[in-house]
Amino acid sequence: MKFYENSAIFNYSWEQVAQGFWKRYPNPNSKHVLSEDTVSRELKSGKLVSKRILTKTNNIPNWAKRFINTTYVYIVEESIVDAKNKILVTYTRNIGFTKVMSVTEKVTYTQCDVNPSKTVATRYAWIDSQVRGFSRAICAFGYERFKKNAHKMVGGFNHVLQNMYPHQHVIQTGYVTATAATKLKDAAKNASELAKAAPMYASLHPN
Questions:
Q1: How many domains does the chain contain in total?
Q2: Which InterPro entries match (predicted)?
Q3: For range 27-39, the mean pLDDT
Q4: SS3 for 67?
Q5: Considering the domain boundaries, does residue 143 fall inside one?
Q6: How far apart (Å, rounded) are the C-alpha atoms in residues 63 and 79?
Q7: What's the domain range around 69?
Q8: Each residue of 65-124: pLDDT tens digit?
Q9: How far are the Cα atoms of 104, 121, 132, 156 from residue 77, in angstroms, in the given order?
Q10: Among 2, 34, 101, 158, whose CB has the most other CB atoms within 10 angstroms?
Q11: CATH number for the domain including 161?
Q12: Calpha distance 135→118 (Å, rounded)
């Protein structure tokens, strides 16, 4: 197994980042993300808990074609938004070809301690493979690809935030009110309504 860890700082308040999270697709760095579909969303103890299915595609090297016969992969994304304490945590994992390579990611978005007008995103990832005789090479490949994509994800999210807040120079900070929490929920709801339905969702979640 390979473990990846990295941190990035966004020059936007936590409230802005939390609202932008639901609108981060599409962006110039995420052309591989084909669709989004919300499975569930509810408030639990004042926290917004969501589960979504993302459809992604990636070019695969020739050696991997002996194990994988498609470039499409489905990702489960679970998130918890704690507006009161200004914490957004996301968990993602692939739900296809997990024996070949499984990637589990956790990202925590928190208000910067040094500068409250900025947001710190801490990313962790675990890459594993169960292919006997090839697991080490597959994990190494997965690690390098994830590392490269992590930088692209940060750049793509920054692009979205810049478009959402092009003229905002002074960022208001302070206690998150109920109104702010409602805005986060509305942003998530609006993003869900605009998202494309994942083409394999029905087969993945039969009634």
A1: 1
A2: PRELI/MSF1_dom, Slowmo/Ups
A3: 94
A4: coil
A5: yes
A6: 34
A7: 2-188
A8: 888 888 889 999 999 999 999 999 999 999 988 999 999 999 999 999 999 999 999 999
A9: 10, 16, 28, 18
A10: 101
A11: 3.30.530.20
A12: 39
